[in-house]
Write a structure and sequence with these properties.
There is one protein chain. β37 and β38 form a beta hairpin. By secondary structure, the chain is an alpha+beta fold. Strands 9, 10, 13, 14, 15, 16 and 30 form a seven-stranded mixed sheet that branches. Strands 42-43-44-41-35-45 form a six-stranded mixed sheet, with helices on both faces. Strands 47-48-49-46-51-50 form a six-stranded antiparallel sheet. Among the domains are: 38 residues, no CATH class; 212 residues, 3-Layer(bba) Sandwich (FAD/NAD(P)-binding domain), CATH 3.50.50; 98 residues, Arc Repressor Mutant, subunit A, CATH 1.10.10; 146 residues, Probable tRNA modification gtpase trme, domain 1 (Gyrase A, domain 2), CATH 3.30.1360; 91 residues, 2-Layer Sandwich (Alpha-Beta Plaits); 84 residues, Aminomethyltransferase beta-barrel domains (Elongation Factor Tu (Ef-tu), domain 3), CATH 2.40.30.110. Helix content is 22%, strand content 28%. α7 packs parallel to α8, α12 packs across α13 and α12 packs across α14. The radius of gyration is 36 Å and the shape is elongated.
């Protein structure tokens, strides 16, 4: 029976009791407890149900490797599913609920699955839910959706805050155990900037639990002194409760810090995501104890031996009054000794090895009166929701039960595996250590930086070293090698810390999996507690042909999800190797993926939530628009005025007014949102020729050209005016909201395909305000401001020039998206509002009015100009829009050219752009489909076209539309029908898409 001990509890403040609830039951613990230690102290052995079979599950470990203790933490706006009880620090008022059961933890209907286990083997979901197909929607899918996942998704809005930190250091040490502290101390002595991350709240790792001496002082005294020394160095930053989550290329590391999880009453961010750039990284991440595989090794009360020791020493908690220790190495003997010293009973140590009777551990066990059974192991564990005893058999695996022992806990140890996840994240390779039976980092195949140098090292147990003196020497050497890589040196008098011989933890594990004459694994033994994977599942996978370790992993789900193989990896590999009659190294390892331990979704988002999740982009004139009646329209991340509403005016009336005024007098449009990309370099012309469908390299400085851009599948993705600035420089305009997308498109091709081109691309969209001055009075307004010749002779259509207007430095583009005389004028963003004010002032007597995006759309539709996103939908090519003239016949190639030669692209029967006029002058519904003769096989009338843009034109006094129609240009004058969603059928005539000033006389004046 688990309980709180009178002794032990080095991490507790026993003067401060803490109240919490588990499944609604009131319990108490102490400050310093984890939720796991507090639950065990309250004799709560059962903490959850397994994923597939809903078997009773208890706590197995004491750290982030815990696979079973996942709970729903908190409630309401502070709810978090799948929180690990072993890494959750206890606080007053904590509320936790177990997961994956119904109706209760004690009685779970899902436990019936154990009787169906023969029908639920590895990969059953690949086999069972195929036939009959009619059962998919109403039978299979609801069952699968209900069963999927652990925990439950939060329903209320998270009210906590989260943040991102950016840090730079010479040396990043991940792990604050003895090895990490030694490496940090040595690196810091050189003057290097050092950042140390430790995932727990306390320094020293396992060493304070196991004791020993360092530099002729107790290990805890050395830890305290070293931490104090590091805290006193200005070049060192120490962070507890901070996990090294992932290591990436170029020294980039993600850290995850828990700031107020343990103290929710404290104000400030809950979690912090560290984004670190380090010159060199030392992973001192320690090692994880491995479980053993025997029948019933998942029954609550079966735990890792070192974790049992942790609970006794750190938290003063006994897992049981009578604990059987089963092991294949010396380290588990320390657990037996700790239990005896705490006044608890150890009926037996079952050692798979046969040790000399005069060995040190045997002598200590005898001195404490502990019975040691050599060459024996556990045949099965007795009990259901908690351990009641064990059956013992010969370790050779004959299966005959030799004896049964009554106990209420089992402490198991199958050796130790270095934590190599971070080393592996960035490409570090592993080697098989035959002495310790584990994979450890291979220094000859270390992660390489861009310069070919090593940028990640390991230290201590993470290197596969388990003796204290070896561990300290390795940490000191890792720091020395790191500094050499950085061009720094240790001080001459710097020396590695020295462990006394008595502090060497006895640890000589012998691997006992199926290679050689070792142990015969029991079929019903569990390998992966979190994903319910048994030994028999892995053997079945091998039998069915999944012989690759990665294939077997996915077929069985071994080591997947949040576990990432922390406890199951080596045992699973050994089982697969045995099934294939191969050794473990030849089977290989699976891929470890970041993060090492789950990170909250909110921490990944950081400050990017609510209004800052997708920050609203505003032009320099935004406040003016707001003050003057702008009705806003979201366009990408921007907010643009849809129309400017006056007093009781309707939106429709405002738009009609703006169109009429711009056609007859003068309008101003805030065009600052248009993307502006500078493309510069000796190969810029060649690069743009490949991106655009028409020639850009032949464009002369001072000239502009309209360009189309396709992706490699030939579909239109953007358009805009390109201006050549000088011999090596072009400025490319993109659609609103397209700047980042097209910039990324350009960079992708430059970095992956045309990496040898000497070209640079800069996004300068927000560096400039751009104002369209449009209408018959546009030139008059600019001439009144004075300072620059903007006559047709000095600045012709599709030309640009730099100059000064009204005292403002400007770049003037003579381009038009309205069909009227138009100038688009760019000024520095900081001068945007002042220039706008000057134009409004000088245009007052010329009838100036601002106009919004809807007016813009009507103006361009009257002229038959296309709009990306309206006339295009990801399946439209230039030929569909009658833009053959923009496809260069001089160029050998451009993105999309070969795609346009495909049969379905070159098909003359494609839908093509036309104008549409309703026979009664009404406005066609936007997006309406045209119906033709006949029906398809489903009885639906055949579609022959669709409306892409539709408006009422005040200029023409009727509804106009543009659309894609089957063979449209060849059907001029024909009437077609468009059924509306309002039950009305609209009749429209196919006409030329240019409704206004087809000759272009107005824009060319």
């Amino acid at each position: 029976m688990s309980t709180r001990l009178a002794t032990g509890g080095r991490l507790l403040n026993k003067s401060k009791a803490v109240s919490f609830r588990f499944n609604g039951k009131h319990m108490t613990g102490f400050e310093g407890d984890t939720l796991a230690s507090a639950l065990l102290a309250n004799d709560q052995m059962l903490v959850g149900r397994s994923f597939k079979y809903h078997r009773p599950r208890g706590i197995v470990a004491a750290g982030p490797e815990e696979p079973n203790g996942l709970v729903n933490l908190g409630e309401g706006s502070s709810f978090e599913p799948n929180a690990r009880v072993t890494t959750t620090e206890l606080f007053d008022g904590l509320r936790a609920e177990s997961q994956n059961h119904w109706p209760s933890l004690e009685f779970d209907v899902g436990a019936i699955n154990k009787y169906l286990s023969r029908f639920l083997p590895a990969g059953f979901y690949y086999k069972m839910f195929i036939h009959p197909r009619p059962l998919w929607k109403h039978v299979y899918e609801p069952i699968i959706r209900h069963s999927a996942g652990l925990g439950r998704a939060p329903k209320e809005r998270d009210q906590d805050t989260y943040e991102h930190f950016y840090a730079f250091c010479d040396v990043l040490v991940i792990g604050g155990g003895v090895a990490g502290l030694e490496a940090a101390r040595a690196a810091a002595l050189s003057g290097a900037r050092v950042l140390v991350m430790e995932q727990n709240a306390n320094w020293g790792g396992r060493t304070p639990v196991d004791g020993g001496e360092i530099n002729d002082a107790p290990a805890q005294a050395w830890i305290d002194a070293t931490v104090a020394e590091l805290e006193g160095m200005e070049n060192v930053t120490l962070r507890t409760r901070t996990m090294g989550a992932g290591v990436y290329d170029h020294g980039y590391v993600l850290g995850y810090e828990r700031l107020t999880d343990h103290a929710p009453e404290v104000s400030g961010p809950r979690h912090r995501l560290w984004r670190v750039r380090a010159g060199h990284i030392i992973t001192a991440t320690g090692a994880i104890e491995r479980p053993l595989s025997f029948a019933g090794n998942d029954i609550p009360g079966v735990m890792l031996a070192a974790s049992v020791r942790d609970y006794v020493v750190n938290y003063g908690v006994s897992v049981g009054d009578r604990t059987v220790v089963v092991t294949n190495n010396d380290d588990a003997y320390l657990t037996a000794f700790a239990l005896k010293h705490a006044g608890l009973d150890v009926p037996a140590i079952l050692d798979a090895r046969v040790l000399p009777q005069d060995s040190e551990v045997m002598a200590q066990a005898k001195a404490l009166g502990i019975r040691v059974l050599m060459g024996q192991g556990i045949s099965s564990v007795k009990g259901g929701k908690r351990v009641t005893g064990v059956a013992i058999c010969s370790q050779a695996g004959e299966g005959a039960v030799l004896e049964e022992i009554t106990c209420d806990a089992v402490a198991m140890s199958g050796g130790w595996s270095p934590v190599v996840h971070l080393w592996s994240h960035c490409g570090g390779k592993l080697k098989w250590d035959t002495v310790n039976a584990c994979f450890s980092p291979d220094p000859d195949n270390a992660p390489q930086g861009a310069d070919g140098g090593q940028f990640v090292s390991t230290a201590g147990a993470a290197s596969g070293l388990f003796q204290m003196d070896d561990l300290l020497n390795d940490a000191f050497a890792a720091a020395d090698g790191t500094l050499r890589c950085l061009g720094k040196k240790l001080p001459r008098d710097a020396k590695a810390s020295k462990a006394a011989p008595s502090s060497e933890a006895p640890m000589a594990p012998v691997w006992l999996m199926p290679q050689g004459a070792s142990v015969k694994l029991r079929e019903k033994a569990w390998l992966d507690y979190q994903n319910d994977v048994k030994v028999s599942d892995v053997r079945l996978a091998a039998q069915e042909g999944f012989v690759s370790v990665e294939h077997a992993k996915r077929y069985t789900t071994l080591g997947m999800a949040t576990d990432q193989g922390k406890l199951s990896n080596i045992n699973g590999l050994a089982t697969l190797a045995g099934a294939l009659n191969e050794d473990i190294p030849s089977v290989g390892t699976t891929t470890f993926r970041p993060p090492y331990h789950p990170i909250s979704m909110a921490a990944l988002g950081g400050e990017a939530r609510d209004a800052t999740f997708q920050p609203i982009r505003r032009t320099p004139m935004h406040d003016w628009h707001e003050t003057n009646g702008a009705q806003w329209e979201p366009v990408g991340h921007w907010r643009r005025p849809y129309a400017y509403i006056r007093q009781d005016e309707s939106t429709h009336d405002a738009v009609m007014r703006e169109v009429t005024n711009t056609r007859e007098k003068m309008g101003l449009l805030d065009a600052s949102t248009l993307g502006k990309l500078i493309v510069k370099g000796p190969d810029a012309g060649e690069f743009l020729d490949m991106l655009y469908t028409n020639m850009m390299s032949t464009l002369k400085p001072g000239k502009c050209r309209y360009g189309l851009m396709c992706n490699d599948n030939g579909f239109l993705i953007d358009d805009g005016v390109v201006a050549r600035i000088d011999e090596d420089t072009w400025l490319c305009h993109t659609t609103t909201g397209g700047a980042e997308r097209i910039h990324a498109h350009m960079e992708e091709w430059l970095q992956t395909e045309w990496w040898d081109m000497k070209v640079f691309v800069a996004n300068v969209t927000e560096q400039y305000a751009q104002i369209a001055v449009v209408g018959p009075n546009a030139r008059k307004a600019l001439e009144k401001l004075g300072g620059m010749d903007v006559s047709a002779e000095a600045l012709g259509f599709m030309e640009w020039a730099d100059g000064v207007i009204g005292g403002f430095n400007v770049r003037v583009y003579r381009i038009s998206f309205s069909g009227e005389l138009s100038y688009e004028i760019a000024v520095d963003a900081s001068h945007g509002q002042a220039f706008w004010d000057a134009l409004m002032a000088v245009g007052d007597e010329l009838g100036v009015m601002p106009y919004g995006t809807e007016c813009l759309h009507i103006l361009r539709a009257e002229k038959g100009f296309i709009m990306i996103g309206d006339e295009t939908d990801g399946t439209v090519i230039p030929q569909d829009l009658n833009l053959h003239w923009a496809l260069s016949k001089k160029k050998e190639d451009y993105l999309g050219k070969r795609a346009h030669l495909r049969s379905h692209m070159a098909d003359p029967n494609r839908w093509k752009l036309v104008g549409l006029e309703t026979t009664d002058g009404s406005v066609l519904p936007d997006g309406a489909y045209a119906v033709g003769e006949g029906s398809n096989e489903n009885g639906q009338r055949n579609m022959i076209g669709r409306v892409t843009s539709s408006y009422h034109s005040p200029t023409l006094g009727k509804g106009i539309a543009m659309g894609l129609v089957h063979n449209g240009p060849d059907r001029m004058g024909e009437e077609i029908e468009f059924p509306g969603t309002d039950g009305k059928t609209y009749k429209a005539r196919i006409v030329d898409p240019v409704f206004y000033d087809k000759a272009g006389e107005k824009q060319n004046v």
